[in-house]
Amino acid sequence: MDTALILTNGRLETDDAKTAHGLIRGTSRFKIVGVIDPVSAGRDAGEVLDGRRRNIPVYASIAEFMEQKHQKPDFGIVGVALSGGKLPEDWHKILLEAIQSCINIISTMHYPLSEILVLREAARKNGVQIMDLRKPKPIDQLHFWNGEIYKVHTPRIAVLGMDCSIGKRTTCRFIEETCRKNGIQAEMIYTGQTGWLQGYRHGFIFDATLNDFVSGELEHAIVECNRQSSPDLILIEGQSGLRNPSGPCGSEIIVSANAKGVILQHAPFRTHYEELERLGCRLPDVADEIKLIKMYGAETLAVSLNGEGGTGEDLIRYRDELTQRLGLPVIRPLQEGVVGLLPVIQHFISQTSE
């Protein structure tokens, strides 16, 4: 297994580092040997993330890592997702340090690092690769939607969210793991770069795909997953939110994937769409979002809560109130896991398989 350092450059403790957070929670594609983050240096990355030690040390610099470990990793992974999709120039220093240490770079940013002249030239001189995960595939490798999804009878649940950066992928991963531990062979369709980095076999990178091919790539990933893995349940990682004006997404995941079940990720203490506060773009009420999902032809099975911005007591109070208001299971995945969703998932599978 290839070894990798995660590069967060002072942002490990922020929501910008969601790629890093996913890799810290687990990946089958890489062995994570450390995180480079001067702000959190000296700590364990898992403890920084959620208080759980994962034996992934945080270093102030690549030089410090090399001094202590004496062995270079295979890859340095850019572990942040920033608004606008472009790394600030203050990142060039850490990237050049990695390249000059003959460490290959994997970038998750929209703007290709391989097209930045100083980085490209440094990579050429040092014989290393810059891999831009969000570079679009060649047209001849893409698929149009053709209706083959209607031949797939495996139940499908989309894990959608009210907004970006709200925990959809993490909840989806928790559900997959919990299902497998309880005798349900679940497979996750990744739709973002972190899912690929974590080692999921089936999926595509949604926002690196030309719009005309999004539905076809989604359909193709599900058809191939069903053919190759024969799962009991297919989980689909959502992107953005149905009504996020900066990038509405979710209808394709319901309609083109013919997903009849939804688990909705919600952050009750977030009032506006991420980074759109200045424009007054408020999040809709969760009950109203569930009505919209129903109009698309899917049933919301449960709501999963992200507690950012509130206390633990606030979140428990909100969970109890929302459970009563919606008449649906409402869970706190980071605090209590997702085992409470098993009964509704089992019922959905049996109902959908009939």
Q: How does the SSE layout of this entry go?
A:
Layout lengths: L1 E6 L10 H8 L4 E7 L8 H6 L7 E2 L2 H8 L5 E4 L13 H9 L3 E4 L9 H10 L3 E3 L23 E6 L6 H14 L4 E5 L2 H5 L4 E2 L7 H19 L3 E5 L13 H5 L5 E6 L19 H10 L3 E7 L6 H15 L3 E2 L1 H4 L5 H12 L1
CATH superfamily of the largest domain: P-loop containing nucleotide triphosphate hydrolases
Roughly what is the average pLDDT, rounded to an integer?
A: 95
Q: State the domain count.
A: 2
Counting H and I runs of at least 4 residues, what is the number of helices?
Answer: 13
Secondary structure: number of strands: 13
For the biggest sheet, the summary is:
7 strands, parallel
Q: In whole angstroms, how far apart are the ends?
A: 41 Å
CATH architecture of the largest domain: 3-Layer(aba) Sandwich
Helix content: 25-40%
Shape: globular
Radius of gyration: 20 Å
Strand order of the largest sheet: 9-8-10-7-11-12-13
Q: What report would you give on this structure?
A:
The protein is α/β, with parallel strands linked by helices and 354 residues long. It has 2 domains: 2-132, Rossmann fold; 141-353, Rossmann fold, CATH 3.40.50. Helices cover 35% and strands 17% of the residues. It has 13 helices and 13 strands. It has helices at residues 18-25, 45-50, 62-69, 92-100, 117-126, 168-181, 193-197, 211-229, 251-255, 286-295, 312-326, 333-336, 342-353, and strands spanning 2-7, 30-36, 58-59, 75-78, 104-107, 130-132, 156-161, 186-190, 202-203, 233-237, 261-266, 299-305, 330-331. The strands form 2 sheets. The protein has a 7-stranded parallel sheet with strand order 9-8-10-7-11-12-13, sandwiched between helices. A 6-stranded parallel sheet has the order 3-2-1-4-5-6, with helices on both faces. Helix 2 links the parallel strand 2 (30-36) and strand 3 (58-59). The longest helix is centred in the middle third of the chain and has 19 residues, at 211-229. The N and C termini lie far apart (41 Å).
